[in-house]
Amino acid sequence: MSHPDREPAITRVSDLQTTDSRWIALHKIEYTDQAGTPRTWEVATRKTRGKAAVDAVAMGNVFLHPSKPPSTMLVIQYRPPLDAYTVEWPAGLIDADETAEQAAVREFKEETGYDCVVTSVSPAQAADPGMTNANMQLVMVEVKLGGDDALPEQRLEDGERIERVMVTLDDMYDKLVEYSKRDRFVVAAKLFHFAAGMHFAKTSGHVKL
Amino acid sequence: MSHPDREPAITRVSDLQTTDSRWIALHKIEYTDQAGTPRTWEVATRKTRGKAAVDAVAMGNVFLHPSKPPSTMLVIQYRPPLDAYTVEWPAGLIDADETAEQAAVREFKEETGYDCVVTSVSPAQAADPGMTNANMQLVMVEVKLGGDDALPEQRLEDGERIERVMVTLDDMYDKLVEYSKRDRFVVAAKLFHFAAGMHFAKTSGHVKL
Fold first, then answer.
1. What is the C-alpha to C-alpha distance for residues A56 and A154, in angstroms, rounded to an integer?
2. For the domain bounded by A53-203, which CATH number is listed?
3. Domain at B39-203, CATH from 3.30.70.2730, 3.90.79.10, 2.30.120.10, 3.40.50.300
4. Domain boundaries, chain A
5. How far apart are the first and last CA of chain A?
6. Which of B19, B26, B37 sits opposite A21 (nearest CB)?
7. From the record, what ranges are coiled-coil (chains A, B) (predicted)?
8. What is the residue-level pLDDT of chain A in tens, covering all 209 positions?
9. Residue A64: enclosing H or E segment and its boundaries?
10. What is the value of ipTM here, to two decimals?
């Protein structure tokens, strides 16, 4: 956000009890391990999971332009959990009555303004398996641009501010490293890992191309 | 885990209040957004973060063998939050008095039995920015093997069972897709995204190699 209306600011952080929360909860899991020993584990869960049995989708996107190199659209938004602007691929929760593909097309349109075509859907992946049961699917999507470069209107919810940034696929890794150095910016781990995988394939000398 | 002593089993899941938890907590964040509107957000946090200001490291590892293709070691373990076996890169929390590099070398030795050399350390990345402030650094490490293929002993904590699986870098993506299809197995999102980035670089035709 180069010119936000004003900088978001946290005014208060307080303990929240699972009894009082609307979106997320803590649970204590009691289990027996492989040796038969009883153990416990603490886990954070979402209260919103629907029939898909998967919480969320992220859209790995490729923009193809007649005269420009293949690019991807990143979204930058203020995230209160980090009190920072995060750099991510467009993403969102899957509604209770949606498939992953439907959620991907809907959320991509809302956050970027573009209609996209789904090219692949990953298996469900565990977001942070030591701490939560949250999971997601990576949906690869493609947008074919004409010559017109005007950005379509986003369909954001009241109060949502999402900045769109287009970077070429070849520049993506370096741009993410740059963003990470900026004050109050942080790159989301899944996006960074995808870019790091591309970078590793290109530069390590250990991958057959 | 092809032959665990017995299958782990969850015996009870109960609501946990932040007041009573040891490892993780829920917080309510009150903040003013870019338009100056007061809003709230719910977040899950770790109670264990130390001086590094980063929670965890994951070790993207490369094993170099005199006569075998470059490979990586994956770890498979039962994760109570998912009631499943997760396929991940070795990872762990950074202790209060450690740097990311130190934690990486220590945790890698504990989980794999191998001494490694750190080749790069990523910026801090946000694990799941909509839900938590949890963050991590991807530490790339290298192990040079001699001709001896015997697995060194792990240094696991009481009750920890971590299976080690070596896959070639060229097979990694396909193996992760296979694991995802197995009953009660799930691949961690960061690992999957790294592999998907490698796969995309090699196969999409959109990346200069």
1. 20
2. 3.90.79.10
3. 3.90.79.10
4. 53-203
5. 37
6. B26
7. none
8. 444 578 999 999 999 999 999 999 999 999 999 889 999 999 999 888 766 689 999 999 999 999 999 999 999 999 999 999 999 999 999 998 899 999 999 999 999 999 999 999 999 999 999 899 999 999 999 999 987 778 899 998 877 899 999 999 999 999 999 999 999 999 999 999 999 999 999 999 999 98
9. strand A56-64
10. 0.95
